[in-house]
């Protein structure tokens, strides 16, 4: 198979290149950031992408968002996410996007055998789905409790919103700036999957999620 690797850690990236080539795969590009991943895939049109989640420039979820973008543009592209983290929102979106091409999500520190990893890559490249059980567990937990993804401070802010407090009052109560409160609220909306929409009030929907939980 023709493979593109996206991993910002140089030693791990080069190790993956050597490993996959040893097992007969052709690594057509290996890159260290999300924009380069998109460019490499569009240039080389590989069979499968192996990508980390947290990559430059922001080290948050750039690799996973790049994979989603590429799946939208190239539905037949197989994607194997290899990460230390479960980025729950985009992981759920990626796994829900299955349209014939293979998908996988493995956690780096739970892979105990190189052949196990290569076998997973082969299955994903052949159109299968390979997901670490821990990823499944965290996604199911998120589905049961939407507030589980919030930090303690974000839960505190959401509780004050549920009490009807305005941003200025929340800032006074928590001894932080209004800008910090606004940032917490933006994170809450993102983690509760509440994108901007003309016909909905996200603050009210967030409170309803809080009350249900």
Main traits of this protein?
213 residues, alpha/beta, Rossmann fold, Arc Repressor Mutant, subunit A, 53% helix, DNA binding, DNA-binding
Number of helices: 10
Based on CA atoms alone, the radius of gyration comes out at 20 Å
Low-confidence stretches: none
Give the helix/strand class: alpha/beta
Account of the 3D structure:
The chain has 213 residues and is an alpha/beta fold. It has 2 domains: 2-142, Response regulator (Rossmann fold, 3-Layer(aba) Sandwich), CATH 3.40.50.2300; 146-212, Orthogonal Bundle (Arc Repressor Mutant, subunit A). The chain is built from 10 helices and 6 strands; from the N terminus they run βαβαβαβαβαβααααα. It has helices at 10-22, 34-44, 62-73, 88-95, 114-125, 133-144, 152-162, 167-174, 178-191, 202-212, and strands at residues 2-6, 26-31, 48-51, 78-83, 103-107, 129-131. It has a 6-stranded parallel sheet, with helices on both faces. Strand 1 (2-6), helix 1 and strand 2 form a beta-alpha-beta unit. The chain is elongated and about 60 Å long. The termini are far apart. The mean pLDDT is 88. InterPro entries: CheY-like_superfamily, NreC/VraR/RcsB-like_REC, Sig_transdc_resp-reg_C-effctor, Sig_transdc_resp-reg_receiver, Tscrpt_reg_LuxR_C, WalR-like. Residues 143-213 form the HTH luxR-type domain. One of its GO terms (molecular function) is DNA binding. Residues 2-123 form the Response regulatory domain.
Question: Could you give the topology of this structure?
Answer:
Blueprint: E1 2-6, H1 10-22, E2 26-31, H2 34-44, E3 48-51, H3 62-73, E4 78-83, H4 88-95, E5 103-107, H5 114-125, E6 129-131, H6 133-144, H7 152-162, H8 167-174, H9 178-191, H10 202-212
Parallel strand pairs: 1-2, 1-3, 3-4, 4-5, 5-6
Helix pairs in contact: 2-3, 3-4, 7-9, 7-10, 8-9
């Amino acid at each position: 198979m023709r493979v593109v690797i996206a991993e910002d850690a140089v030693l791990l990236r080069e190790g993956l290149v050597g490993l996959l080539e040893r097992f007969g795969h052709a690594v057509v590009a290996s890159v260290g950031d999300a924009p380069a991943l998109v460019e490499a895939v569009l240039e080389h049109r590989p069979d499968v992408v192996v990508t980390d989640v947290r990559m430059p420039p922001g080290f948050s979820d750039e690799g996973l968002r790049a994979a989603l973008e590429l799946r939208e543009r190239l539905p037949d592209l197989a994607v194997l996410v290899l990460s230390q983290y479960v980025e729950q929102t985009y992981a759920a979106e990626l796994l829900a996007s299955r349209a014939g091409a293979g998908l996988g999500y493995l956690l780096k520190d739970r892979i105990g055998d190189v052949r196990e990893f290569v076998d997973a890559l082969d299955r994903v490249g052949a159109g299968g789905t390979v997901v670490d059980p821990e990823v499944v567990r965290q996604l199911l937990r998120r589905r049961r409790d939407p507030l589980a993804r919030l930090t303690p401070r974000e839960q505190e802010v959401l509780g004050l919103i549920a009490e009807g407090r305005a941003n200025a009052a929340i800032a006074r109560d928590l001894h932080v700036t209004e800008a910090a409160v606004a940032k917490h609220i933006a994170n809450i909306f993102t983690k509760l999957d509440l994108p901007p929409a003309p016909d909905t009030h996200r603050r009210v929907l967030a409170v309803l999620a809080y009350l249900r939980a």
